[in-house]
Design goal:
The protein is of the alpha+beta class. Helices cover about 20% and strands about 45% of the residues.
Length: about 160
């Protein structure tokens, strides 16, 4: 894969506030407004928000965000910027080096030496053209909820 990963729209990069792992539903609504969709899968509540031209899918367990995914139309930005955005979603972690395969970069975040968070940035083909997804999920949830978010990506 090229040195720079193609990721997310410029509107997303310009936005200064992103959902954090551990936020409450109330904090998310204060940040983005009311969600436009709610589903329950795997025993978790999933809420979909839209802000700054970005679609945001959040999984809640016991009232707190355990996974957040951002979807935007594609622009050329580098892996370092993706890492900054991921770090905002799960602050105060130590991150390993990205593993990059087939337009996807993956990281693992550690808190005091223990694996705590999985993060991924990937390019996908949506119904309106190429898009990018950044996802950050607490480690105990197995890393990803890809099957849940497939339809959301096509709503851009």
């Amino acid at each position: 894969m090229k040195k720079s990963l193609l990721i997310i729209g410029l509107a997303f990069a310009a936005s200064s506030a992103f959902a954090h792992i551990g936020w409450t539903y109330k904090q998310c609504v204060q940040q983005y407004g009311k969600p436009f969709n709610h589903t329950v899968r795997y025993g978790l509540n999933f809420y979909d928000f839209s802000a700054h031209g970005v679609l945001i899918a959040e999984a809640f367990d016991d009232g707190y965000v355990v996974s957040v995914s951002y979807f935007a139309l594609q622009s050329a930005l580098d892996v370092k910027l993706a890492m900054k955005l991921i770090d905002k979603a799960a602050p105060n972690l130590t991150w390993d080096n990205a593993t990059e395969v087939n337009n996807t970069a993956e990281w693992r975040g550690y808190y005091h030496g223990q694996y705590a968070v999985y993060a991924q940035a990937s390019v996908y083909q949506g119904s309106k053209g190429p898009g990018v997804k950044i996802q950050v999920t607490r480690a105990e949830y197995g890393g990803r909820f890809d099957s849940i978010e497939g339809d959301l990506a096509d709503q851009l």
